[in-house]
Amino acid sequence: MPSLHSSVTIKQLEIIESVKNRIDTVEFEKRKGLGSIMKKRFSMMRSRAVPEVPANKEPGDGDKKVKNSKDEMENIEKAFSKQSLRDDDQFNSLPPPPTLRERTRSLNAPSPIQQFGPCGRIMKNSAMVMTIQDPASQRLTWYKPPLTVLVIKKVRDAMVIPPFIQLVKWFINQKRMVVFVESAIMDDPVLTRHPEFGHIKEKLMTFDEKKDDLTDKIDFCCCLGGDGTLLYASSLFQQSVPPIMAFHLGSLGFLTPFKFEDFEAQVTHVLEGHAALTLRSRLRCILMKKEEEETSAKPNTNQLVLNEVVIDRGPSPYLSNIDLYLDGKLITSVQGDGLIVSTPTGSTAYAVAAGASMIHPSVPAVMVTPICPHSLSFRPIVVPAGVELKICVSPDSRNTAWVSFDGRMRQELCHGDSLRVTTSIYPIPSISAQDQITDWFDSLAECLHWNVRKKQRTLDELSDLSSDPYDEIKNETKNET
């Protein structure tokens, strides 16, 4: 009949065997010293489960089983000692962990920890989990070669015509691409008189902005002009937008990072899929008239804007009185000349002129800026990109308001009308000349002359500040006397 010590030892050995069988499935090889820790744990189990046999006592059946258990324990301990050495070797062969000074080029903030203190943590909700790609890793790729290209040039500018013809000829003859242009430029007298335009006129595909839908027809887009040309290109695509490459041939060119001098190499580089992308968010603006809301009719105005939507007092001499709602909650009533709701891209346009901060286009946000508010404490605010803004004329307002979308489609916002603004799922994939950070700061320096001032002189260039500035006057007075 087995003794108590023997039964305990067998039970412990069964536990040891089960743990031993699970070792292969547990990824502890990358953990330094885990084998040593397990060896210590088994040593403790051996001391508890296997009692020592007195030297002056004859070993019985139970004691022989204890001795066998002890020998098996020692064999397991030796095995774990060898495993510990292998763990140490594998750990030493791994690359060293990064130091605190090393940083990645991620533009996203690091993921916050989910636990706060001993007890608090964020409630997990699988429905709200989102995967956001790092903006620094957003690069253009083509899953099939682009065949159609839309070329948009600045209107009423004769200096843009030679580059326009040169680019169009190169796309047709060298890249064998189908080129789309606006139908209005075919009647441009300056362009039609150009001697080289007659050779390519019949090869161009035209479209009418008011009639034709370019969705899923254009693979690539090139803009020749200034920021207004890019804004016009954005208005042509009210859903998915093809990659846009903007050449600086206009006045300001904050959104046009490419120079035209070396366009062949630059465009070829992009068509081969070697370019960084800046996803410029757009705002979905739905103007719901009072009659449409009462009859549940489809709104006539449903626009995507790249820069901003502006609500102002129009020709009225009175202050505008506009109610601003955020996710259905009344935030404030705007009393002033109006309100600007802008994207991060639009923060460097009308909004910055009204006193707003400049936001990098990769920041997911919406900026709300008052225009000449009748309150010194009404400062511009930045809200999360996922909120819905609702703007309407206050019931007790003396006048109506006017709304415009990227400077176009200006119309009246009457009492009972409402304007709903959200972030669209269709951004502008703007191709970067270098990368998202460099292009933006280059534009700040070159176009806005951000923080440009005369350098402060060093102390070596100054006169001796310890001397009395009136000493020279005193000396002149003494000489005169």
Computed structural class: alpha+beta
Number of helices: 12
Number of strands: 21
Helix content: 25-40%
The rounded Rg comes to: 37 Å
Descriptive labels:
single chain; 481 residues; alpha+beta; 6-stranded antiparallel β-sheet; 12 helices; 21 strands; 22% strand; globular; disordered N terminus
Describe what you observe in this structure.
This protein starts with a helix and ends with a helix. It has 12 helices and 21 strands. Helix content is about 30%, strand content about 20%. It has helices at about 5-20, 35-50, 60-95, 160-175, 190, 195-200, 225-235, 265-270, 290-295, 350-355, 435-445, 470-480; strands spanning about 115, 120, 150-155, 180, 205, 220-225, 245-250, 275-280, 285-290, 300-305, 310, 320-325, 330-335, 340, 365-370, 380-385, 390-395, 400-405, 410-415, 420-425, 430. The protein has about 475 residues and is an alpha+beta fold. α1 (about 5-20) packs antiparallel against α2 and α2 (about 35-50) runs antiparallel to α3. The model is unreliable at about 1-10, about 25-35, about 50-55 and about 95-105 (pLDDT under 50). It has a 6-stranded antiparallel β-sheet. About 30% of the residues are buried. β6 (about 220-225), α7 (about 225-235) and β7 form a beta-alpha-beta unit.
